[in-house]
Design goal:
The protein is of the alpha+beta class and about 550 residues long. Helix content is about 35%, strand content about 25%. It folds into 4 domains: about 170 residues, FAD/NAD(P)-binding domain (3-Layer(bba) Sandwich), CATH 3.50.50.60; about 80 residues, no CATH class; about 100 residues, D-Amino Acid Oxidase, subunit A, domain 2 (D-Amino Acid Oxidase, Chain A, domain 2); about 120 residues, Orthogonal Bundle (Helicase, Ruva Protein, domain 3). About 0% of the residues have low confidence.
């Protein structure tokens, strides 16, 4: 992109807002939608692309809170149940039920009877889990299955002492990147503003009061001031890098860990399976989740002294992950070469009075109460599933603090961008009939689950030129109209934006050369890239995937 394109890219950006949100992960995106839908003039600033940081690190599971039974934390469980239901209702094209299992043993906390009782209690607490959901999104009750049934699910599992397995259902996000985008686009359609590749360089203060943010455009090097007397910083560790931890004595900041999930080529099981690693120091489970043509496995946690601009994991740390998997499933014989993608993200540590532990609750801090500037709020979120609830709570808090009345929250029932669907099965069946003969069944299914009701706009491109219906080179079920639709409507300015977050073309493994080449050519034509810019964008995409060779480290984000 050249400086000449600057004004068109940030068209409509105002000089002043009620609220500035910093950070375009799931928390910032949900916060933008919440604020805009409740009547606040709001802009979101993201230094890279929406959903490109920690939000990209996910097992893709939308949790219903069953894990909180072990601590009898019924309040958090209820909230997780409600938020899983809300996401299934407002983005039904991007969410689907997911079967989950864990093996049972003779130990009391993993015993069949203990887990059977837990399921019965959970099902009572979650009695309204399917309210307002169509048949395709209903969450079934949990049950106990036999050891033989479990071994059919996971034949490579060789632990001979299991007594059976516990089976329940959660939900899976089909495309987490587009779920983040759905919140952003919903706000933009309602009149909010969202700017990717626009960095909040520093806060603009007057007498220790927030007056706005000095923004730096990463694509054009332009710098300017956006005014607002309230800022919500949703960047987590990046907020610490701006000095918040040191300057306002943030009690929550006891440290950070790097959270790691790996994507592998092996399709290990048709459902999510939780298994305790051999020789593990704690009782934590690794989950193997079906994903595209393979699986996602995680989560591992590696210590980190302080946040860095770039997340790095070493080859030795990946070797530790591989060894743990092979210790559980030796016949898998996993190696570095089987890993197609590594997800990395920051998670905060808290202090439980004896030792550091993973922070598991969100917090909203008002900087002025800790010697920071008036008008600044910092949100620390930890769970993808509950981001919408945290946003609703935060806007309530901020509204009271700044004495700015807002409308009641309806974001738990308002369809997101692409999700205006009453009954997913009925709607998808109708689309299959309407577009049969125009697209293959696989293409229709892809379009439905990635773009939702935007399938009609994408199909309209073929009315302009039938060539838009041709496959994207290297991806038979993707069509060229998708690329044009995204470039026309979805704030896509780098090749990584397109391949890693707007489409699913790069979310499992590195796309084929012809796919990268076609998409790079389309973007170059759209944004008048020269050859150097095009090569830089291609290099950035390729750098996102593992190339083990003799390298000692992998830079993932």
């Amino acid at each position: 992109m050249t400086a000449a394109d600057y004004n068109t890219r940030l068209d409509g950006l105002k000089d002043s807002y009620d609220l500035i949100i910093i950070g375009g992960g799931i928390y910032g995106a949900a916060m933008l939608w919440e604020a805009v839908s409740r009547g606040l003039s709001t802009v979101l600033l993201e230094k890279d692309d929406f959903g490109s940081g920690t939000s990209a690190n996910s097992l893709k599971i939308i949790h219903g809170g069953i894990r909180y039974l072990q601590d009898l934390d019924f309040r958090r469980m209820r909230k997780s149940i409600q938020e899983r239901r809300a996401l299934s209702r407002i983005a039904p094209h991007l969410i689907r039920p997911l079967e989950c299992v864990i093996p049972t043993y003779r130990k009391i906390h993993r015993h069949k009877l203990a887990l059977w009782g837990a399921f019965k209690l959970y099902d009572c607490i979650a009695c309204d889990r399917n309210d307002g959901l169509g048949a395709s999104h209903r969450i079934n009750a949990g049950k106990i299955i036999s050891a033989d049934e479990f071994r059919k699910i996971l034949p490579s599992f060789e632990d001979g002492v299991i007594t059976g397995a516990a089976q329940w259902h959660d939900a899976q996000a089909i495309n987490t990147e587009r779920l983040v985008l759905a919140f952003v686009m919903s706000a933009v359609k309602r009149g909010g503003h969202a700017c990717n590749h626009l960095k909040a360089k520093e806060y603009h203060l007057k007498n220790n009061h927030i007056q706005g943010v000095i923004a730096y455009d990463e694509l054009t090097s332009a710098e300017f001031l956006i005014h607002a007397k309230t800022v919500i910083d949703c960047t987590g560790p990046s907020a610490m890098q701006r000095g918040l931890k040191e300057n306002i004595g943030l009690a929550a900041g006891s440290g950070l860990v790097r959270a790691v999930n790996i994507v592998v080529r092996h399709h290990i099981a048709d459902c999510a399976v939780g298994i305790r690693p051999a020789q593990s120091e704690d009782d934590r489970l690794l989950f193997i989740t079906p994903w595209r043509n393979g699986s996602i496995i995680g989560t591992w946690y590696f210590s980190q002294e302080s946040p860095a601009e770039t997340l790095v994991i070493t080859k030795q740390e990946i070797a530790h992950c591989i060894a743990q998997i092979n210790g559980i499933l030796p016949s898998l014989n996993l190696s570095h070469d089987d890993i197609t993608l590594v997800h990395l993200g920051w998670l905060p540590l808290g202090f439980d009075g004896a030792s550091k532990t993973l922070q598991n609750k969100f917090e909203v801090f008002k900087a002025a109460q800790m010697n920071g500037p008036e008008g600044l709020f910092w949100v620390q979120g930890v769970k993808f599933t509950t981001a919408r609830h945290v946003a609703a709570h935060t806007i309530d808090v901020v509204s009271k603090q700044i004495n700015k009345p807002v409308q009641l929250s309806v974001s738990d029932a308002t369809p997101l961008y692409g999700g205006e669907i009453e009954d997913f099965d009925v709607w998808s069946g109708d689309c299959q009939r309407r577009y049969k003969g125009r697209f293959t069944a696989g293409t229709i299914d892809r379009l439905l689950h990635n773009y939702g009701t935007n399938i009609d706009t994408i199909a309209d491109y073929l009315n302009k030129d039938i060539s838009y219906g041709e496959p994207v080179p290297g991806v038979p079920e993707a069509i060229k109209a998708e690329i044009s639709f995204i470039l026309d409507h979805e704030m896509t300015y780098t090749l990584s934006d397109l391949l890693l977050r707007r489409t699913d073309l790069g979310t499992f493994e590195c796309p084929r050369d012809e796919t990268i080449g076609y998409c790079a050519d389309e973007m170059a034509a759209r944004w008048c890239w020269d050859q150097d810019t095009k090569k830089t964008n291609i290099k950035a995409v390729l750098g996102r995937y593992p190339e083990w060779g003799n390298s000692n480290s992998l830079i993932s984000l």
